[in-house]
Amino acid sequence: MPDSARATRAPAAADAVSSRPDGGAAPSDAITAVGLTKRYGDFTAVDGIDFSVARGESFGLLGPNGAGKSTTMRMIAAVASRTAGELSVAGLDPEKQGPEVRARLGVIPQQDNLDEELTVRENIIMYGRYFGLPRRWLLGKAEELLEFAQLTQKAKARVEDLSGGMKRRLTIARALVNEPDVLLLDEPTTGLDPQARHVLWDRLFRLKETGTTLVLTTHHMDEAEQLCDRLIVVDHGRIMAEGSPSGLIREHSTREVLELRFGMDRNAEQAEELTGVLTPGDAGFDRIEVLPDRLLVYAERAEEALEQVHAAGHRPVTSLVRRSSLEDVFLRLTGRSLID
Ligand SMILES: Nc1ncnc2c1ncn2[C@@H]1O[C@H](COP(=O)(O)OP(=O)(O)OP(=O)(O)O)[C@@H](O)[C@H]1O
């Protein structure tokens, strides 16, 4: 939340906070899930997952399409029921205390659901009215949020005239109108061009710095690396690993990766030959993964590995040395790529 926005608490939202049924001090965890499960008939979309999100933390669910990320978010947001397990959001049970939970959350769904008929400013004000916030207070709040979202110049524009990145920023501004404790973002930058993604990341980074708890889903490893203090890697409804981006990379991958291309049909055959060239002691070599278009040589010192490849007479068409990423962690854990 922008500092300026914090200075003027939402009056009606404050009432909602003081009417908390548990009445006690705010819990240290913003969200706690234990054995959280969601089944659709025979199909298990979320399979008994445990995690907690501390207040002020930026927490991610990283996984491919269909991993169960959105379903988990929908249970947190009190719009889908759970089949089994425990879930606590700001100390409340979303299933039993849906309206109270929703009053404490800002939700950014995968698809923008802005009111196309209204102007940018009106979108924020109307959304605030749903929370019962007074119109006069909302007029000032809308200006703060427009500034935060870098949309002041567009205040009177209609939503249909905005770019994709602007719409996304407006959706975030709108979700902040009730001064939520936790912001839920489902795939916040999917579909945006690189420049629009960076502008959005910058805004989210600002929110993170001012202490807003962020929970986001993504299948972009760079987004998770940029924004998350901690994340869970999910696949088929299960948690495969948990940790900080750098901790996960340290635990599950080598420091560096050598990417080699030998030409479409030769990669598998070359992988076998290179396994004979590179031994575990050499260059901190760990293993080779064969992808359809390239080989990934996992080694602590990839430049040294490349020297050894050359010294053994192998001539890749292209070679690239890079640091390991969360994509490599996912590949290691599941044998698959994050984006199929
Ligand atoms: N209402 C539903 N009825 C039946 N199956 C569903 C329903 N909603 C989701 N699923 C299934 O549950 C699984 C998890 O879906 P979910 O949307 O949570 O995945 P995701 O990780 O968020 O992926 P995406 O990024 O594609 O949304 C998918 O296989 C999906 O088809």
Describe the protein in words.
By secondary structure, the chain is an alpha/beta fold. It has helices spanning 3-7, 11-18, 69-76, 98-104, 120-130, 135-148, 164-175, 194-209, 221-227, 245-252, 267-277, 302-311, 326-334; strands spanning 29-40, 43-54, 58-62, 84-89, 105-108, 182-186, 213-218, 230-235, 238-243, 256-261, 285-290, 295-299, 318-323. It contains 13 helices and 13 strands. A hairpin with a 2-residue loop joins strand 1 (29-40) and strand 2. Residues 1-9 and 11-25 have low confidence and may be disordered. It comes from Nesterenkonia aethiopica.
Radius of gyration over alpha carbons?
23 Å
- By CATH, the topology of the largest domain is Rossmann fold
Low-pLDDT segments: 1-9, 11-25
End-to-end span in angstroms?
A: 35 Å
Unique ligands: adenosine-5'-triphosphate
CATH superfamily of the largest domain: P-loop containing nucleotide triphosphate hydrolases
CATH class term of the largest domain = Alpha Beta
> Globular, elongated, flat, extended or rod-shaped: what is the shape?
elongated
What is the number of strand segments? 13
Could you say how many structural domains there are in total? 2
Structural class by SSE content: alpha/beta
Count the DSSP helices: 13
What portion of residues is helical?
Answer: 25-40%
- The share of residues in extended strands comes to 25-35%
> Whole-number average pLDDT?
88
What strand line-up does the widest sheet have? 5-6-7-3-8-9
